[in-house]
Amino acid sequence: MARPVGTITRGTTNPNRLRRMDRWIAFALGAELRRAADPVAVDLGYGAAPWTAVELLGRLRTVRPDAQVVGLEIDPARVAAAEPYRRDGLTFAHGGFEVPLPDRRRPVLIRAANVLRQYDETEVPAVWDRLRARLAPGGLLVEGTCDEIGRRHVWVAIGPEGPRTVTFATRLGSLDRPSDLAERLPKALIHRNVPGEPVHAFLTEFDRAWATAAPFASLGARQRWIRSVRLLAESGWPVTDRADRWRQGEVTVRWEALAPRGA
User: Which of 69, 159, 200, 245 is deepest in the core (most CB within 10 A)?
Assistant: First the structure.
């Protein structure tokens, strides 16, 4: 067997760490999952414990009852440790960015959470290209970063054609200002949070909208967030979702608006 492509991660994982990302995936990819002939998803680099793969299966099966998840890890010891959690629809395998699924299967979803933070920014486009080439038509690569207990999360959604959107998600009670999410930007963006870059302009404008929406704080953090996102949209930022997503502490913006200069 060829050596898996990639570098072993720290492996840090906690139950429910990726619940915000999973919730968004079930919403955004639900229609494609329901019509897929082979509803298989990959949890790439699930870490030292298989909780995220177990939870992903449960959440996808609320949309597609026969969904399947393959947890891939570059560390054989982690694959062996996950085997007791194997069940109907959930398997574990040794692999990396080559996504080695049997019988030439192509996943509807590849989720790579907290995997690329240890890589250099210049390596990210090639990894994205390699992973999206493995997707089924209509499939989605979701790559991003969150904190240890899943309160703050930012991810990029990438289709077979390339990056589409960036989603910011947070437990609103933990937020002082939207730019607190900057520390969880994915590798493609985290070093671009500097003046002159679009993501910095976005977060600066988001903080300004948050301050303007301060009177809504008396109605709760959720109403303040909703008002802030509405102000962003009214000022021209290409927000792609609606208030039902904003209520959950999310906002999704088109990739082109935040992409690094020269990308």
Answer: 69
